[in-house]
Amino acid sequence: MKKNSIYIALVAVGLVLGWLLFGNKETKKEESPVTTQETKKQMWTCSMHPQIMKTEPGKCPICGMDLIPVDHDHQGGLSKDQFKLTENALALADVQTTIVGNGNGDGNVLIVSGKISENEEANAVQASYFSGRIEQLYINFTGEEARAGQLLATIYSPELVKAQQELITAASLKSTQPELYKAVRNKLKLLKLSDSQINQIESSGKVKEYFPIYATVSGTVYEKMVEQGDYVKQGQPLFKISNLNSVWANFDIYENQISNFKVGQAIVITTEAYPNEVFKAKIAFIDPILNPNTRVVKMRAEINNKDRKLKPSMFVKGKTDRISNSKETLTVPATAVLWTGKRSIVYIKPKPDEPVFEMREVLLGEKLGEEYEIKGGLQAGEEIVTNGVFTIDASAQLQGKKSMMNRETKKTGEIKIPIAFKDQLQGIYDTYIELKDALVNSDSKQANQLASKIEKGIKSVDMKLMPNEATHKQWMLIDRAIEESATAISKSSDIENQRKAFKKMSNQLILAVENFGINKTTYKLYCPMADSDSGAYWLSNEEKVLNPYFGEKMLKCGEVKEKINNK
Q1: Architecture of domain 89-105+328-389
Q2: N or C: which end of the chain has fewer CB within 10 A?
Q3: Is residue 542 classed as helix, strand or coil in its secondary structure?
C-alpha cells in the first residue's frame, strides 16, 4: 500500500513537470501573436506630406491637416530614393505620365511645330491708280470674298476729271494734232481706264465724275485699309486680298535638325482643329540663311486648301521621316526634362499602379522639335512624368529625397513659412474669393477685373521670403500657373471660358494654401459635374455650397471635401 502511494505520487509529479515543460510552451506560442501585435505601434502621417511620422494623432506641422493612421500593409516596397504622393495631390498638380518609346512611337519620325500663313505668291494688294475721295465702298468687312472684275469702290477724282476734259479737247483736234490726242489717251490708260471707257467719254463728250475700281484678282479680303469718305493718294492700298485655295505651313528648324530636311521631301500636316485628318504636302523652301539669334532656319510647305479648312495663324505639326540617321532614337517630351548645372533629370514612375516616383539622371542628345534624344539613363518602356514635373520635384525636396537640387537624400524637418509670405498669399486668396463670388453670380465683367487684380498681386509676391530652394521652386510653379489662369480670365468675356480657367487657378491655390498656409480657416469643396463631368474643386470661406462653375443653373451642386485649418 505504501509502495502504491509512492507510485501515485511519482505519476502526479511527472504530470506536473510535463505540464510545466510542454503545456506552458504551447500557451506561449498562442500568446506570441498578441505580444507581437502589441509591439507594432500605430503611426500617424499626413496625406499631403508623407515624410511626417507621429506616434499620436494631431495636425501636420507643415500644412495643418489632420494626420491619418499609417496603413502598415501598404508602406513597404519603396527604396530610399522613392516617394509616394496621394491621389488628391496628383489630381491637383495635374500630373501626367507617358511611356518612353522610340520617336513618339512612330519609329524614325521627326515632329516639328509650325503655323499656317497666307500663300504670299497668291496675295495681292488692291490699290487706287488715281487720287480722289471714296464715294462708295462695296466691300464692308474683312473675310469677305472678292472675284476678279468685281466692283470694289467708286472714287471721285479731280485728277481724272481734268484728264477727261483734256481728252474731249484733244479729240476735237486729233486730225491736226494726232500726237497730242494719242498722249492724252495713253494718260487715261495709265490711270487704268479701259479702251471702252475712254471711247465712251470721247463719244459722249461728257465728263464722268465717279469712277469704279474693280478687283484684279479673286480671293479673301484679309485686310480692309480704307473707309468710305477717305481721301486716297495715287497708289495707296485699299484692300489686301489673299487666295486661300493654297496656304503655307511655316516651321522653325533648329540648327542640329537641318540635315534631316530637303526640298521636295514629303511631310504630313496635322492640326488640333481636325485631329482625325491629315494634310499631305511637300517641303517647298528651306531658308539658306540661319537666324543668328534663335539659331533656326525657316522651312515651309505649300498645302492645297480648296476646302478652306486651314486658317492663317492656325498651329500645326509636321511629321516627316528623318533622313540623316537611320538608327532608331529614344526620345522623351521636352516637358519631362529638368536641368540644374550639368545635370539633366527626369522623374520615373516605377510602379504603374501606384503614385510612386523616383528621380533619374539622364544623358541628353539633340533637341528634336518638342522632344529630346536620350543617350543614356532611360530605357524604352519606362514610365516618366511629362506634366507637373516641377511639382513632383518640389515634393521630392520636401520629403528629403533625391531631386533637382539634392544629389543625396537628407532628413527634412518641419519647414516654417514666414508670416510675411502668408500675408501676401492671404491677399491673393481674398481676391480669389471675390472672383469665386463673381462666377457664382455669372458676372463676367466683374470676373475680368478681379482676375486682373490677382495678376498684379501674383507679380508683387516676394519669392525671396521662401525659406529654402524646395519651397521656392514649388511656389514658382504655383505662381506661374495662377498668373496664366488669371490672364485667361481677364482677357475673356465668355463666362464658360472663365470658369475653365478658374478650375486651374483653384487647383494651384489649393496647393498653395495646403503647403504654405494662410491666416484663416478655409474649406475645399468639390463638384463632380463641373467641366463636362470631369469634376472641379474650389475654395470657400464657408461650408455653404455656392457653385462657381454653374452659378444659378446648379447653385447647390457640390460638397465640402475638407476643412483646411491654417490658424
Answers
A1: Beta Barrel (2.40)
A2: N
A3: coil
Contact between 127 and 237 under an 8 Å Cβ cutoff? The reply is: yes
Task: Give me the amino acid identity at 223.
Answer: E
Give pTM, 2 decimals: 0.41
Between CA 179 and CA 187, with CA 183 as vertex, the angle to 5 degrees is 175
- DSSP state, residue 20: I
Angle between helices 419-440 and 495-516 (to 10 degrees): 150
Distance between first and last Cα of the chain: 88
The residue ranges of every structural domain in the chain are 89-105+328-389, 109-119+244-321, 121-242, 419-565
Answer left, alpha or beta for residue 81, where phi above 0 means left and psi between -120 and 50 means alpha. alpha
Residue type, position 302, single letter: E
- Which H helix or E strand runs over 483? helix 469-490
How many C-alpha atoms does 284 have within 13 Å on its Cβ side? 14
Distance of alpha carbon 56 from alpha carbon 305, whole angstroms: 69
Provide φ and ψ at 132, rounded to 5°. 165, -175
Cell of 245: 485655295
Q: What is the pLDDT of residues 413-454, one digit of tens each?
A: 446 788 888 889 999 999 999 999 999 999 999 999 999 999
Element (H, E) at 30: helix 24-39
- Note whether 154 and 213 are within 8 A (CB): yes
Q: Which residues contact 490 (CB under 8 A, 6 or more apart)?
A: 448, 449, 451, 452, 455
The cell numbers describing 32, all together, are 506570441
292's grid cell: 543668328
Distance, in Å, from the CA atom of 128 to the CA atom of 134, rounded to the nearest integer, reads: 10
